[in-house]
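RECORD TYPE: inverse folding
INPUT: C-alpha cells
STRUCTURE:
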C-alpha cells in the first residue's frame, strides 16, 4: 500500500473501561484516536481485551465508563443500529455468530443493515425486486461465488461467507470500518482480496480500526499499530518503524527502552 497522510480524527476513545460478564476489567482505561485515511491496527495475543474493545465500539457490548466519540458524537453504550446509521461498518471476528443469518439467502444477508430503508422497504413491506437487484450487483462486484442470490448463505464456503459481509459493509457510505480478524480461517486468495478491499477503503478516506492476532496481517495493513496487553494499550508505534521481534516483545508485555509508553502509563 502507498503511504497516505491521515486526515481528521473520526473515532476518539478516551479512558474506556469495559468489564466482562464476571465483572473482570477487560479494557482498562484505553485511549486511542483513529484518523480518516488511516488504518490503526490493534496487535495482541487473543484474550487481552481486543474483543471487548470492538464490542464497545460497535455497540455489541456495554462499557463501564469513558467516552467513545464517533464524528464528535458520544456513542458509548449506544445501539448497534444507531452506530451503523452514523456511518460505521463492522466485520465481526465470528462471521457465523455475529455477521450473518445462516438460513437466510445471500440476497437478504446483503441488506441486513438497510432492509428497513428505501428502496428495500416501503413501510413494513420488503421490496424483493430491489433486494435481488442489489444482490446481483454486489455478487458480481465482490466476486461472491454462489449458485444464486437465493442460495442460503450458510451453504457457502467460509471465504464467500466473508465476502458477503465485506460486500454488505463496504458497499454503503461509511466513515469508519471496524474489522476484527477479517481473514480468520480463509484461503490465501480470499485473504489477499479482503486485504485489498480494506486498503482501498482507507485510500477513499475511511478510518479503519483493524484487530488481528496475526502479526503479518497487522504489519502489512496498518499505518500505526497499538499493542494491547492485559486490557491496556502499552505502546503505539508506526508500522514502518517496528520489527516483528519488537512487536512480539510488546505483545508479551515487555516494552523495550526505545519504545515510548503512551501518556498516563
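DESIGNED SEQUENCE:
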Amino acid at each position: 500500500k502507498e503511504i497516505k497522510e491521515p486526515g481528521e480524527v473520526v473515532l476518539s476513545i478516551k479512558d474506556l473501561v469495559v468489564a466482562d460478564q464476571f465483572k473482570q476489567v477487560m479494557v482498562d482505561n484505553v485511549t486511542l484516536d483513529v484518523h480518516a485515511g488511516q488504518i490503526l491496527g490493534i496487535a495482541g495475543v487473543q484474550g487481552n481485551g481486543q474483543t471487548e474493545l470492538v464490542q464497545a465500539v460497535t455497540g455489541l457490548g456495554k462499557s463501564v465508563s469513558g467516552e467513545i466519540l464517533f464524528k464528535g458524537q458520544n456513542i458509548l453504550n449506544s445501539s448497534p443500529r444507531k452506530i451503523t446509521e452514523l456511518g460505521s461498518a463492522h466485520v465481526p471476528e465470528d462471521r457465523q455468530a455475529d455477521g450473518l443469518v445462516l438460513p437466510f439467502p445471500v440476497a437478504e444477508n446483503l441488506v441486513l443493515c438497510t432492509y428497513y430503508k428505501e428502496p428495500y422497504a416501503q413501510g413494513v413491506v420488503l421490496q424483493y425486486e430491489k433486494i435481488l437487484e442489489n444482490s446481483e450487483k454486489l455478487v458480481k462486484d465482490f466476486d461472491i461465488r454462489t449458485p444464486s442470490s437465493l442460495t442460503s448463505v450458510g451453504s457457502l464456503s467460509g471465504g464467500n461467507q466473508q465476502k458477503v459481509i465485506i460486500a454488505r459493509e463496504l458497499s454503503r457510505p461509511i466513515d469508519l470500518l471496524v474489522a476484527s480478524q477479517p481473514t480468520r480461517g480463509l484461503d490465501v486468495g480470499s485473504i489477499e482480496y479482503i486485504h485489498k478491499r480494506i486498503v482501498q477503503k482507507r485510500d477513499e478516506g475511511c478510518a479503519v480500526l483493524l484487530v488481528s492476532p496475526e502479526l503479518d496481517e497487522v504489519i502489512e495493513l496498518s499505518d500505526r499499530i497499538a499493542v494491547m496487553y492485559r486490557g491496556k494499550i502499552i505502546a503505539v508505534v508506526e508500522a514502518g518503524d517496528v520489527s516483528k521481534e519488537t512487536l512480539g516483545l510488546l505483545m508479551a508485555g515487555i516494552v523495550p527502552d526505545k519504545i515510548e509508553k503512551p501518556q498516563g502509563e
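NOTES: The CA atoms of residues 91 and 182 lie 6 Å apart.
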